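Hi all, long-time lurker, first post. I run a small reading group and we've been trying to get comfortable going from sequence to structure in the token notation. Rather than ask abstract questions, I figured I'd post a concrete chain and ask someone more experienced to write out its structure so we can walk through it together at our next meeting. Sequence below, copied exactly:
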Amino acid sequence: MIATRLAVAAPLLLVTLLLLGVSRRAWERSSVVGAAWFAILTAGAAVWTGGYAIQIVLPLGPTARLWANRLQWFGVVIVPVAWFVFTIEYAGFDIGTGTVTTLSMISAGALGLVLTSDRHDLIWQSITVRETAGLVTLDETFGLGFYVFLTFAVSLAVIGSAALMSTMRRQGRFDARTLSFVVGIFAPVLAIGLKLASLVPVPGFDLGPIGFGVSALAFGNAVIRHDGLSRTPAARRIGRSALIDSIRDGIVVVDPKGEIVDVNPVTVAALDRSRQSLLGAEAASVLTGVDLDGGVDAGEIEGENGQTFTAQVTPLRDDGRRVGRIVTLRDVTDRRQRDQRLSVLNRILRHNIRNEATVITGYANLIDDPHGEAIASSANDLVSIGEVAREVEALTDDERPTQPIALGSAAQNAAVSVAEEYDEATIDVTVADDAVVADGEVVEVVLGQVIDNAATHVTDPTIEVTVRLTRGDEAPMRRAVVVIEDDGEGIPDRERVPLESGRETPLEHGSGLGLWYVEWAVEQMDGDLRIDVGDGTTVEIHLPIVSATDPVETGVTDRIGAVRSDGSGTGDDSSDEPGVAGDDPATERSPTDPPVDTDS
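-- Answer (accepted) --
Happy to help. Here is the structure in token form:
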């Protein structure tokens, strides 16, 4: 009989030592989220298993054996609570001190009932010592209190396991650490179920501690082999939460019913309301002026402290299912104030420059010598800078209406405008492939600035303007391209270097705003500007092609000639416009014609 007891108790004692080893390893990492509770969990399992080994192997009398059984319950009541708190923290969910205290009090109450069980029958209705097959076991008939605690413990095991499994679903991949934890807790649960169903080889034999043998291996695999307590899913979840709390934009999470379910501190401060008063409130009544079915531009709201917030609404999805909406509130107060100040300053400076330049020009015209011409020219340059500043200001207007245009038409219009000012300039416009691009007004100004720059800095310039589409080796997606080439000495370094570096310094700065406007406008249209200086200057402007279904502004085309749609040109100078070659009606392309793909 002693040999039988030792044969059973020895593995249980080994499992106890393994669990204590895992508990120590976990406690060494107690600074990690969940590690301390996992150490308590495995220590409780060790008490449960070691207590049962003592109950089996020692030659105890009936009363002492019953107390040895009660000793196990110190571990029994610890395991479910420790497991639940560990899994919730490990998975990155919040668990309050009140919840932990309540669960611990329930377990402590169950332990109190066990220790006083000789005075009531809530845990055991009857319990007797019996010897079967060389083993001393307990024949137990459990009372209502036991089954209540069993339900409590199994519920905590299931909820905690679900929290762990959810981390694998969020990560979208198999996680051996998480699976090892779940196997470790359900092995003893299954073993206890077999005992309660009387599916054990020896009547009264407790399989729960045997199940902890599987737990010891599974927990050891998770903690030691996979270092499961050093790499926790909580970092991802807590990191996301901390990120949302730290960003400068307000965040409002709205459920499918339109109720607010979460907000970040920026939103609480902006609305000057407590978090509790916002949670559960109707989003439509709180975020007045915001279209909850809107998108990038969903409206504006005024904060309680005078701020202005623009709203953006995006769907909140989980595995492809729409589960709510996220409203992002961006504080644009400073930007609006800055834009307002710049706008006022810009208008005042432009007005003063224009007025003073007019006066200067008037007096300069009275000076009949080269000095007067130079003064008048400088005054006109100042006026031109003011006009470019006006275009820059218009470019920053988010509410400015835009209209697409055929790029060939925009190039023609820009060439005509420059040719009217520079009689000596020869400008050829070749439309190899046409396409419709966005924001026709800005495109014409951009092309005019580049062509004008070439005409201004070159004596008797010849300027080639080519409109085409990108070829397959130039870009992954087809784009419209305007290439403007001149035969001058190239853009001076003082103008080009600040543009390439993206900033001006006291030593490196341009003389005007024209090229800066081109750079900013092309960037705003999601385009690309390329400048190559060699024997002359080559400027390439790449622009996205808009949908063919968009309305098209064709522009004025009858004033310009020799739009060589086939790239050959007519050489006919019958146009009335100076410096622009003549037109061949037979080969003219309509700006509204669809782009021709010459690569297909």
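A couple of things your group might point at:
The chain has a mean pLDDT of 77.
The first helix runs from residue 2 to 27.
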